[in-house]
Amino acid sequence: xxxANKRRPYTPPTPELGPGxxxxxxxxxxxxxxxLTPHTPWQWFLVVLIGLTGVGILQVxxxxxxxxxxxxxxxxxxxGWGFAIINFVWWIGIGHAGTLISAxxxxxxxxxxxxxxxxxxxxxxxxxxxxxxxxxxxxGRPWLAIYWLFPYPNSMDIWPQFRSPLIWDVFAVxxxxxxxxxxxxxxxxPDFATFRDRxxxxxxxxxFAMLSMGWRGxxxxxxxxxxxxxxxxxxxxxxxxxxxxxxxxxxxISIIPGWHTTIFPPYFVAGAIYxxxxxxxTLMIPLRRLYGLQDFITTRxxxxxxxxxxxxxxxxAYGYFMEQFMAxxxxxxxxxxxxxxxxxxxxxxxxxxxxxxxxxxxxLLWSRRVRHSTGxxxxxxxxxxxxxxxxxxxxxxxxxxxxYMPSSWDMYxxxxxxxxxxxxxIGFFLFAFFLFVRGWPLIAxxxxxxxxxxxxxx
Amino acid sequence: MNESHSEPxxxxxxxxxxxxxxxxxxxxxxxxxxxxIDAFSPLPIHGLAAxxxxxxxNIGVLTFIYGVIGGLTGYFLQYWVHVIDYPINIGGRPHHTxxxxxxxxxxxxxxxxxxxxxxxxxxLNRLPQPYHxxxxxxxxxxxxxxxxxxxxxxxxxxxxxxxxxxxxxxLDPVNVAEVEP
Lengths: 458, 181
Hints:
The complex is a heterodimer. Chain A is mainly α. Chain A is 70% helix and 0% strand. Chain A starts with a helix and ends in an 8-residue tail after the last helix. By secondary structure, chain B is of the alpha+beta class. In chain B, strands 2-3-1-4 form a four-stranded antiparallel beta sheet, with helices on one face. In chain B, helix 4 (59-85) runs antiparallel to helix 5. Chain B is rod-shaped, with a radius of gyration of 25 Å. Chain B starts with a helix and ends with a strand.
């Protein structure tokens, strides 16, 4: 013990909060001032307007789809799965970072998570809502689709097929959304109580009083509350790993070349965390600046998120490498054709764009200067957002357009309605997220209070 | 104020500035023999519930029970559907396909455990509870922000309006006030 101490002088650990936050009072005031104020920054209106435009596009796309049928999409006979599943997987993946931050980092006692967990969980919920639209809508008649999604005693006396990964999806995503909502709502209760007690207007007070359920911060309540949070974290950790594993089974259980591989579950989970952290950074960097949250989301947080992203990215790169290796090592002509087709076939450019976005550009994150610079981090995370979408496009489309039978090959090109639905969900996501930011506590106030450095007073 | 004379007070509330002050005050109060006490804070304080004599929560046991119920529900739902209610012969494959039932069983385990635990938490904490006398304590709105409170309830056998008040004063609080019922 003394050996190590001699070599390296003691340096106090970097605090979780910036120098501006010195007491419970400043923390409470700063975070509630984002919501409990009549003043709304104009940038907020701008983003909400963009989001609402997207919601409009979404509504038109859904209306036309429901009126005309799935024929308005670019699907054809070999490519029966198009944008709907690509976007479903992309959105679900984005959601995973929220659960990673709120559950897995809680179990690992990573205190820096407290600054970002609330907004990352909100991101999870809105991302899963966006994801959930696609499986519903891809049936074309979503109101009739319930009987094969959910096991309920229906008038036809039939049941869903529980041996199908698509039904596993329903249970995995349904559980994921429910548990994420419950975890998020649980964390919000004490913060709603803070807002209730700080609100000036009667109506605001009443609304937050109802949302807080009469929380009064009793020690006994806190004791149970802390244990419940721990239990939920312990439950969410295997849950989040299971969700993307189950999503990957949609592919891996089939026999299509490029899909039928055992590396898919871990590779999908790593990709999900990768995409999710990129989206967290995409949202946090502008928000931090807009609301002056530099004391809460410090350079240390950005640095840590950069490191997590780099690690997840390397696992994803390993996944790509393993796909290449297995295509050769399996000695299966269909597998090796699939890989050749991915790289040099008609969609080859997309593959190289994917490699640039997901493997080459993120190597910038090795540099401390990049991880400490909001501009660079935003730049890298945008590449990853695009890259992870391309990854799903390649997995779905390239394998389907050219499978075993050359006579059934066909190209796939999305129509304006495919794009409309996709862009529409991005709009919905932005709209919902910014509504959350304006109306609800975007940082977990009671958790931040616990990481306040206590200056020697005991 | 006149009304509070007709009805007995809910208790006495002492206000503290720091979590450590509340913790030591709670320990003193408990060792003094008071049992109907509660402490209020804007953040969880490790050891505070134990200091006011609350045994460790066993909500984890409930989580386990809900998980087991969820898992069994998930598995037997599938068993019932595929073996009992609507067996389909697909190429002679068995009806009871254990491994294929695992994902849904797992998800149902998590779902029941998580939702059950949170419902139990609310039920044990008696929430939602729109009204509680402690909110009448002056300055109690800071209990959710930056102040720490200790309440000795009037139905404690040792409670005595003036004696308890002077005891609370001896704990060096910022303020001691009577809580209207």
